[in-house]
Amino acid sequence: MVTSVMPTYGRIDIAFEWGEGSYLYSTAGQRFLDFATGIATNSLGHAHPHLVNKVQEQAGKLWHVSNLYNIPGQMEFADRLVANSFADTCFFCNSGAEAMEGALKAARKYHFANGDSKREEMVCVSGAFHGRTLATLSAGDNDKYREGFGPRPGGFKHVAFGNLNEMRAAMSNETAAIVVEPIQGEGGVNPASAKYLHSLREIADEFGALLVFDEVQCGMGRTGHLFAYELSGIMPDVMGLAKGLGSGFPVGAVLATEKAASGMVPGTHGSTYGGNPLAMAAGNAVLDVMLEPRFLNSVKEKGAYLESALQDLVSRHPKTLDSVRGVGLMRGLKCVCANSDLMTAARGAGLLTVVAAENVLRILPPLTVSTEEIDEAIQKLDEACAMVAAV
Fold first, then answer.
1. Which CATH superfamily is domain 16-34+297-390 in?
2. Cβ 352 vs Cβ 361: under 8 Å
Protein backbone atom coordinates (compact mmCIF):
# COMPACT_ATOMS: atom_id res chain seq x y z
CA MET A 1 0.00 0.00 0.00
CA VAL A 2 1.35 3.42 -0.92
CA THR A 3 2.19 5.87 1.84
CA SER A 4 0.37 9.18 2.11
CA VAL A 5 3.65 10.93 1.26
CA MET A 6 4.50 9.76 -2.26
CA PRO A 7 7.48 7.42 -1.86
CA THR A 8 9.90 9.16 -4.24
CA TYR A 9 12.72 9.40 -1.67
CA GLY A 10 14.91 6.69 -0.19
CA ARG A 11 14.94 8.35 3.20
CA ILE A 12 17.33 7.76 6.08
CA ASP A 13 15.34 6.84 9.18
CA ILE A 14 16.02 9.99 11.21
CA ALA A 15 13.69 12.92 11.93
CA PHE A 16 15.02 16.23 13.20
CA GLU A 17 13.20 18.34 15.74
CA TRP A 18 15.35 21.44 15.92
CA GLY A 19 18.69 22.92 14.96
CA GLU A 20 21.10 25.59 16.09
CA GLY A 21 24.14 26.81 14.21
CA SER A 22 26.03 23.82 12.81
CA TYR A 23 24.04 21.22 14.77
CA LEU A 24 20.81 19.29 14.29
CA TYR A 25 18.91 17.47 17.05
CA SER A 26 16.77 14.44 16.26
CA THR A 27 13.42 13.50 17.74
CA ALA A 28 15.31 10.69 19.49
CA GLY A 29 17.54 13.23 21.24
CA GLN A 30 20.69 12.64 19.16
CA ARG A 31 22.95 15.54 18.22
CA PHE A 32 24.52 15.67 14.75
CA LEU A 33 27.12 18.01 13.31
CA ASP A 34 25.56 19.05 10.02
CA PHE A 35 28.05 19.04 7.13
CA ALA A 36 25.32 18.32 4.59
CA THR A 37 23.29 21.51 5.27
CA GLY A 38 20.25 20.39 3.33
CA ILE A 39 22.57 19.77 0.36
CA ALA A 40 24.42 23.10 0.46
CA THR A 41 21.23 24.99 1.32
CA ASN A 42 21.35 26.03 5.00
CA SER A 43 24.14 28.48 4.20
CA LEU A 44 23.87 30.32 7.55
CA GLY A 45 23.31 27.17 9.57
CA HIS A 46 20.17 26.51 11.59
CA ALA A 47 18.05 29.14 13.34
CA HIS A 48 20.39 32.02 12.51
CA PRO A 49 19.10 34.84 14.77
CA HIS A 50 19.06 37.56 12.11
CA LEU A 51 17.30 35.36 9.57
CA VAL A 52 14.76 34.15 12.14
CA ASN A 53 14.00 37.71 13.25
CA LYS A 54 13.53 39.07 9.74
CA VAL A 55 11.28 36.19 8.61
CA GLN A 56 9.21 36.36 11.79
CA GLU A 57 8.85 40.12 11.40
CA GLN A 58 7.64 39.75 7.81
CA ALA A 59 5.36 36.81 8.68
CA GLY A 60 3.46 39.09 11.03
CA LYS A 61 2.84 41.58 8.22
CA LEU A 62 2.32 39.90 4.86
CA TRP A 63 3.09 36.51 3.30
CA HIS A 64 1.77 36.64 -0.23
CA VAL A 65 0.10 39.05 -2.64
CA SER A 66 1.15 37.62 -6.07
CA ASN A 67 3.06 39.39 -8.79
CA LEU A 68 -0.01 41.32 -9.90
CA TYR A 69 1.33 44.07 -7.64
CA ASN A 70 4.62 45.69 -6.73
CA ILE A 71 6.53 43.89 -3.97
CA PRO A 72 9.03 46.29 -2.33
CA GLY A 73 11.18 43.46 -0.96
CA GLN A 74 11.71 42.20 -4.52
CA MET A 75 13.09 45.51 -5.67
CA GLU A 76 15.42 45.70 -2.68
CA PHE A 77 16.66 42.14 -3.17
CA ALA A 78 17.08 42.57 -6.92
CA ASP A 79 18.95 45.86 -6.50
CA ARG A 80 21.40 44.22 -4.09
CA LEU A 81 21.98 41.17 -6.28
CA VAL A 82 22.53 43.38 -9.32
CA ALA A 83 24.89 45.67 -7.40
CA ASN A 84 27.01 42.68 -6.36
CA SER A 85 27.03 40.66 -9.59
CA PHE A 86 27.39 40.81 -13.36
CA ALA A 87 23.62 41.08 -13.77
CA ASP A 88 21.33 43.95 -14.68
CA THR A 89 18.04 42.27 -13.78
CA CYS A 90 16.56 39.38 -11.76
CA PHE A 91 13.54 37.09 -11.92
CA PHE A 92 12.49 35.41 -8.67
CA CYS A 93 11.16 31.88 -8.32
CA ASN A 94 11.14 29.16 -5.67
CA SER A 95 13.78 26.53 -6.48
CA GLY A 96 16.93 25.70 -8.39
CA ALA A 97 15.07 23.75 -11.06
CA GLU A 98 12.76 26.72 -11.63
CA ALA A 99 15.77 29.04 -11.78
CA MET A 100 17.40 26.91 -14.45
CA GLU A 101 14.12 26.58 -16.37
CA GLY A 102 13.92 30.36 -16.36
CA ALA A 103 17.54 30.65 -17.48
CA LEU A 104 16.95 28.26 -20.40
CA LYS A 105 13.79 30.14 -21.40
CA ALA A 106 15.59 33.49 -21.27
CA ALA A 107 18.38 32.18 -23.53
CA ARG A 108 15.97 30.86 -26.16
CA LYS A 109 13.74 33.92 -25.99
CA TYR A 110 16.74 36.23 -26.48
CA HIS A 111 17.45 34.75 -29.88
CA PHE A 112 13.77 34.59 -30.87
CA ALA A 113 13.31 38.25 -29.95
CA ASN A 114 16.33 39.12 -32.07
CA GLY A 115 14.93 37.39 -35.17
CA ASP A 116 16.86 34.12 -34.93
CA SER A 117 14.15 31.61 -34.02
CA LYS A 118 16.18 28.58 -35.12
CA ARG A 119 18.62 29.09 -32.22
CA GLU A 120 17.05 26.74 -29.68
CA GLU A 121 19.80 24.24 -28.91
CA MET A 122 21.58 24.10 -25.56
CA VAL A 123 25.07 22.61 -25.40
CA CYS A 124 25.49 21.04 -21.97
CA VAL A 125 28.21 18.91 -20.39
CA SER A 126 28.73 15.45 -18.96
CA GLY A 127 28.21 15.05 -15.22
CA ALA A 128 25.82 18.01 -15.11
CA PHE A 129 22.83 18.28 -12.80
CA HIS A 130 20.36 21.12 -13.34
CA GLY A 131 17.16 19.93 -11.63
CA ARG A 132 14.30 17.44 -11.87
CA THR A 133 11.84 19.09 -14.26
CA LEU A 134 11.56 17.60 -17.76
CA ALA A 135 13.67 20.33 -19.36
CA THR A 136 16.33 20.44 -16.65
CA LEU A 137 16.58 16.63 -16.72
CA SER A 138 17.37 16.95 -20.43
CA ALA A 139 19.96 19.62 -19.69
CA GLY A 140 21.46 17.38 -17.02
CA ASP A 141 23.38 14.19 -17.65
CA ASN A 142 21.90 11.36 -15.60
CA ASP A 143 20.01 8.67 -17.50
CA LYS A 144 18.78 7.14 -14.24
CA TYR A 145 16.85 10.32 -13.40
CA ARG A 146 15.39 10.48 -16.93
CA GLU A 147 14.25 6.86 -17.14
CA GLY A 148 10.50 6.54 -17.63
CA PHE A 149 9.90 10.23 -18.27
CA GLY A 150 10.16 10.23 -22.05
CA PRO A 151 9.90 11.56 -24.60
CA ARG A 152 12.66 13.94 -23.62
CA PRO A 153 12.32 17.60 -24.53
CA GLY A 154 14.52 18.26 -27.56
CA GLY A 155 17.18 20.87 -28.11
CA PHE A 156 19.87 19.56 -25.75
CA LYS A 157 23.22 17.99 -26.56
CA HIS A 158 26.09 16.98 -24.28
CA VAL A 159 29.86 17.10 -24.57
CA ALA A 160 32.54 16.02 -22.12
CA PHE A 161 33.04 18.40 -19.20
CA GLY A 162 36.36 20.19 -19.65
CA ASN A 163 36.82 19.16 -23.29
CA LEU A 164 37.07 22.28 -25.42
CA ASN A 165 37.48 20.40 -28.70
CA GLU A 166 34.15 18.66 -28.17
CA MET A 167 32.52 21.93 -27.14
CA ARG A 168 33.70 23.77 -30.24
CA ALA A 169 32.63 20.89 -32.50
CA ALA A 170 29.14 20.91 -30.97
CA MET A 171 28.52 24.60 -31.69
CA SER A 172 26.46 25.70 -34.68
CA ASN A 173 24.20 28.45 -35.94
CA GLU A 174 21.40 26.73 -34.00
CA THR A 175 23.14 27.01 -30.61
CA ALA A 176 21.28 29.24 -28.18
CA ALA A 177 23.58 28.81 -25.18
CA ILE A 178 26.34 26.88 -23.45
CA VAL A 179 25.13 25.67 -20.04
CA VAL A 180 27.58 24.72 -17.29
CA GLU A 181 28.11 24.65 -13.53
CA PRO A 182 31.34 26.45 -12.52
CA ILE A 183 31.64 23.70 -9.91
CA GLN A 184 29.65 20.52 -10.44
CA GLY A 185 28.03 19.45 -7.17
CA GLU A 186 25.86 16.38 -7.78
CA GLY A 187 28.34 15.35 -10.48
CA GLY A 188 31.15 14.86 -7.96
CA VAL A 189 32.38 18.29 -6.75
CA ASN A 190 34.28 19.00 -9.96
CA PRO A 191 35.52 22.59 -10.34
CA ALA A 192 35.86 23.94 -13.87
CA SER A 193 39.28 25.47 -14.45
CA ALA A 194 39.57 29.19 -15.08
CA LYS A 195 41.07 28.40 -18.49
CA TYR A 196 38.05 26.26 -19.40
CA LEU A 197 35.55 28.95 -18.38
CA HIS A 198 37.55 31.64 -20.23
CA SER A 199 37.45 29.46 -23.34
CA LEU A 200 33.70 28.85 -22.99
CA ARG A 201 33.17 32.61 -22.88
CA GLU A 202 35.23 33.01 -26.06
CA ILE A 203 33.44 30.17 -27.85
CA ALA A 204 29.99 31.48 -26.89
CA ASP A 205 30.88 34.95 -28.14
CA GLU A 206 32.40 33.61 -31.36
CA PHE A 207 29.24 31.65 -32.22
CA GLY A 208 26.80 34.32 -31.04
CA ALA A 209 25.50 32.13 -28.20
CA LEU A 210 24.85 33.00 -24.57
CA LEU A 211 26.80 31.58 -21.64
CA VAL A 212 24.56 30.24 -18.88
CA PHE A 213 25.98 29.34 -15.45
CA ASP A 214 24.21 27.13 -12.93
CA GLU A 215 25.28 28.36 -9.49
CA VAL A 216 22.37 26.80 -7.62
CA GLN A 217 24.77 24.80 -5.43
CA CYS A 218 28.13 26.53 -5.82
CA GLY A 219 26.90 30.12 -5.50
CA MET A 220 26.03 32.33 -2.53
CA GLY A 221 29.33 32.42 -0.69
CA ARG A 222 30.23 28.74 -0.74
CA THR A 223 33.54 29.33 -2.52
CA GLY A 224 34.52 32.35 -0.42
CA HIS A 225 33.18 34.63 -3.14
CA LEU A 226 29.54 35.61 -3.34
CA PHE A 227 29.41 33.84 -6.72
CA ALA A 228 31.65 31.05 -8.02
CA TYR A 229 32.19 32.75 -11.39
CA GLU A 230 34.29 35.36 -9.57
CA LEU A 231 37.03 32.74 -9.12
CA SER A 232 37.72 32.81 -12.86
CA GLY A 233 36.83 36.42 -13.58
CA ILE A 234 34.51 35.22 -16.33
CA MET A 235 30.98 36.59 -16.32
CA PRO A 236 28.02 34.68 -17.74
CA ASP A 237 25.06 36.20 -19.55
CA VAL A 238 22.49 34.33 -17.45
CA MET A 239 22.79 32.53 -14.11
CA GLY A 240 20.52 30.38 -11.97
CA LEU A 241 20.62 30.66 -8.16
CA ALA A 242 18.77 28.98 -5.28
CA LYS A 243 19.76 26.79 -2.28
CA GLY A 244 21.94 29.10 -0.14
CA LEU A 245 20.11 32.15 -1.50
CA GLY A 246 17.45 31.76 1.21
CA SER A 247 19.51 29.66 3.64
CA GLY A 248 16.80 27.01 3.63
CA PHE A 249 13.81 29.17 2.78
CA PRO A 250 12.59 28.37 -0.77
CA VAL A 251 14.04 31.14 -2.96
CA GLY A 252 15.36 30.92 -6.49
CA ALA A 253 16.52 33.57 -8.93
CA VAL A 254 17.48 34.04 -12.56
CA LEU A 255 20.13 36.73 -12.97
CA ALA A 256 20.78 38.15 -16.43
CA THR A 257 22.38 40.99 -18.32
CA GLU A 258 20.10 43.53 -19.98
CA LYS A 259 21.05 42.06 -23.37
CA ALA A 260 20.31 38.45 -22.39
CA ALA A 261 16.98 39.39 -20.81
CA SER A 262 15.84 41.52 -23.73
CA GLY A 263 13.20 38.99 -24.75
CA MET A 264 11.69 38.64 -21.29
CA VAL A 265 8.87 41.14 -21.51
CA PRO A 266 5.49 41.11 -19.70
CA GLY A 267 3.66 37.83 -20.24
CA THR A 268 6.71 35.76 -21.23
CA HIS A 269 7.35 34.18 -17.82
CA GLY A 270 5.81 34.15 -14.37
CA SER A 271 5.43 32.52 -10.97
CA THR A 272 2.58 32.62 -8.47
CA TYR A 273 4.81 32.34 -5.40
CA GLY A 274 8.09 33.62 -6.84
CA GLY A 275 9.41 36.67 -5.01
CA ASN A 276 6.71 36.64 -2.33
CA PRO A 277 7.27 39.00 0.64
CA LEU A 278 8.28 36.19 3.02
CA ALA A 279 10.86 34.78 0.63
CA MET A 280 12.27 38.24 -0.06
CA ALA A 281 12.64 38.88 3.67
CA ALA A 282 14.66 35.66 3.93
CA GLY A 283 16.82 36.49 0.92
CA ASN A 284 17.54 40.03 2.07
CA ALA A 285 18.43 38.74 5.54
CA VAL A 286 20.90 36.29 3.99
CA LEU A 287 22.52 39.12 2.04
CA ASP A 288 22.69 41.24 5.20
CA VAL A 289 24.98 38.61 6.68
CA MET A 290 26.95 37.62 3.58
CA LEU A 291 27.73 41.21 2.63
CA GLU A 292 29.20 42.04 6.03
CA PRO A 293 32.82 43.18 5.48
CA ARG A 294 34.59 40.10 6.91
CA PHE A 295 32.11 37.35 6.09
CA LEU A 296 33.37 36.10 2.72
CA ASN A 297 37.01 36.38 3.78
CA SER A 298 36.21 34.19 6.77
CA VAL A 299 34.70 31.59 4.40
CA LYS A 300 37.94 31.58 2.38
CA GLU A 301 40.00 31.14 5.54
CA LYS A 302 37.82 28.33 6.85
CA GLY A 303 37.78 26.74 3.40
CA ALA A 304 41.58 26.63 3.38
CA TYR A 305 41.57 25.24 6.92
CA LEU A 306 39.08 22.53 5.93
CA GLU A 307 41.07 21.59 2.82
CA SER A 308 44.28 21.20 4.82
CA ALA A 309 42.51 19.07 7.43
CA LEU A 310 40.92 16.88 4.75
CA GLN A 311 44.25 16.43 2.96
CA ASP A 312 45.77 15.25 6.22
CA LEU A 313 42.81 12.89 6.72
CA VAL A 314 43.37 11.38 3.26
CA SER A 315 47.04 10.80 4.01
CA ARG A 316 46.10 8.87 7.17
CA HIS A 317 43.49 6.67 5.46
CA PRO A 318 44.81 5.61 2.02
CA LYS A 319 42.69 2.43 2.06
CA THR A 320 39.50 4.47 2.48
CA LEU A 321 40.16 7.84 0.83
CA ASP A 322 41.83 8.82 -2.42
CA SER A 323 41.82 12.62 -2.68
CA VAL A 324 40.19 15.95 -1.87
CA ARG A 325 38.26 18.06 -4.36
CA GLY A 326 36.51 21.41 -4.40
CA VAL A 327 36.81 25.03 -3.34
CA GLY A 328 36.07 26.93 -0.13
CA LEU A 329 33.41 25.19 1.92
CA MET A 330 32.30 23.03 -1.01
CA ARG A 331 34.52 19.97 -0.68
CA GLY A 332 34.46 16.39 -1.81
CA LEU A 333 36.30 13.29 -0.65
CA LYS A 334 36.99 10.89 -3.50
CA CYS A 335 36.58 7.53 -1.81
CA VAL A 336 38.32 4.19 -2.22
CA CYS A 337 35.54 2.53 -0.22
CA ALA A 338 31.91 2.99 -1.23
CA ASN A 339 30.96 6.60 -0.53
CA SER A 340 27.61 5.46 0.90
CA ASP A 341 29.44 3.25 3.42
CA LEU A 342 31.51 6.20 4.59
CA MET A 343 28.43 8.43 4.78
CA THR A 344 26.69 5.82 6.97
CA ALA A 345 29.73 5.43 9.21
CA ALA A 346 30.08 9.21 9.57
CA ARG A 347 26.43 9.48 10.53
CA GLY A 348 27.00 6.80 13.14
CA ALA A 349 29.77 9.00 14.54
CA GLY A 350 27.40 11.98 14.63
CA LEU A 351 28.34 13.73 11.37
CA LEU A 352 25.96 14.36 8.45
CA THR A 353 27.39 14.35 4.92
CA VAL A 354 25.96 13.64 1.46
CA VAL A 355 27.14 11.49 -1.44
CA ALA A 356 27.76 12.59 -5.03
CA ALA A 357 28.69 10.95 -8.33
CA GLU A 358 32.15 9.50 -9.02
CA ASN A 359 32.14 7.87 -5.57
CA VAL A 360 32.58 11.22 -3.84
CA LEU A 361 31.40 12.19 -0.35
CA ARG A 362 30.36 15.84 -0.20
CA ILE A 363 31.48 17.95 2.77
CA LEU A 364 29.20 21.02 2.90
CA PRO A 365 29.29 22.78 6.27
CA PRO A 366 27.36 25.98 6.93
CA LEU A 367 29.32 29.08 5.98
CA THR A 368 29.10 30.12 9.64
CA VAL A 369 31.00 27.00 10.79
CA SER A 370 33.85 27.50 13.27
CA THR A 371 37.34 25.99 13.04
CA GLU A 372 36.56 24.08 16.23
CA GLU A 373 33.55 22.50 14.50
CA ILE A 374 35.72 21.64 11.51
CA ASP A 375 38.13 19.91 13.90
CA GLU A 376 35.21 18.00 15.37
CA ALA A 377 34.06 16.93 11.91
CA ILE A 378 37.54 15.71 11.01
CA GLN A 379 37.66 13.67 14.21
CA LYS A 380 34.33 12.08 13.34
CA LEU A 381 35.48 11.37 9.78
CA ASP A 382 38.63 9.83 11.23
CA GLU A 383 36.45 7.49 13.30
CA ALA A 384 34.26 6.73 10.29
CA CYS A 385 37.23 5.86 8.08
CA ALA A 386 38.54 3.52 10.77
CA MET A 387 35.11 1.87 11.07
CA VAL A 388 34.85 1.32 7.31
CA ALA A 389 38.40 -0.05 7.08
CA ALA A 390 37.71 -2.51 9.90
CA VAL A 391 34.76 -4.13 8.10
1. Aspartate Aminotransferase, domain 1 (3.90.1150.10)
2. no
